[in-house]
Amino acid sequence: MAPRDDPGGGFAQAGFREGRLTVRDGLRLFYRDYGDPLAAGTAVLCLPGLARNSHDFHRLALRLSADRRVVCPDYRGRGRSDRASSWHGYTPQNDLDDLRQLLAATGLRRVVVIGTSYGGLLAMGLGVVAPRALAGVVLNDIGPDVSAAAEARILAHLAEGRPQPDWAAAIAYLKSLLQHPPFRTDADWEEFARGTYYEPAAPGAPLRAAWDTAIVRALRQGGGERPDLWALFRSLRDVPVLLIRGELTDILSEDSAARMAALHPAFTRVTVPGVGHAPMLTEPECVQAIDDFLERVPAAPYR
Predict the structure, then answer these.
(1) Range of the domain at 210
(2) In this structure, is residue 4 part of a structural domain?
(3) Residue 200 within any structural domain of the chain
(4) Domain of 223: which CATH number?
């Protein structure tokens, strides 16, 4: 089960409803629900990176929720959702099934999915298991080809889940890890750190990672062949796609981005200068591109 302590402790965020969903294997998953459920604009489903959580989308969700509903889940074993009893419970298939149950429970029949990194891969998976639910997809710094070296680097960091004595140390540690980060201010770094760690209830205890490190064991030891990610990408051929890429990313190559554009008939792309993996989606280039993209997606209201 999830720890009692919440990520983002001491860094209050408001403007959303807290939702909880019990999925088929009994885990309770947390999600944030922004905006009017009956808003006219097509709803947005925000999917975070592999070990990230709904905290990352707060600023984007607040902005978009002015005229549409925005739902941001914490995957199992991340953020405020329950942890699986075994590492075997952490599979992309389970995450996809959880998302299908979330869509049904919240009444979201058709959504634009905004997926960062792993969240973008899940968006492609929804193109296979729930294609009628997709009105459009925004892929944030991810594609069908993922650099093996970059993946190994990320998994090594996530496997450690290194506790930190305080927030200043946590920020310093994250600064030492990230290559070409999108964060420009102290407030940006603090917000990122407080979505990465949580404050335990016990006074003086170290900050703990806001993910279950068993997620990495599942990826490394889960067995079986990986799916053909290009086939998953082709499942999105009937919906518009926006690709956002950090200019200095080591996850998604320019060649892969160009191939994606050549394969998809309704593909738009934007590059965020001077940024690696992954853009915050609050950069001016991202704001304009996402707003333009949502305007082109036919309205699919909650009702």
Answers:
(1) 17-296
(2) no
(3) yes
(4) 3.40.50.1820
- Residue 288, domain member (yes or no): yes
Q: Is 8 a member of any domain?
A: no
DSSP letters spanning the chain: ---SSPBTTTS---SSEEEEEE-TTS-EEEEEEES-TT-SSPEEEEE--TT--GGGGHHHHHHHTTSS-EEEEPPTTBTTSPPPSSGGG--HHHHHHHHHHHHHHHT--SEEEEEETHHHHHHHHHHHH-GGGEEEEEEES--S---HHHHHHHHHHHHH---BSSHHHHHHHHHHH-SS-S--SHHHHHHHHHTTEE--SSTTPPBEESB-THHHHHHHH--SPPP-HHHHHHTTTTS-EEEEEETT-SSS-HHHHHHHHHH-TTEEEEEETT--S---S-SHHHHHHHHHHHHHSPP----
pLDDT exceeds 60 at position 5: no
Q: Give the chain's domain count.
A: 1
Tens of pLDDT, residues 88-139? 999 999 999 999 999 999 999 999 999 999 999 999 999 999 999 999 999 9
Q: What is the pTM of this model?
A: 0.94
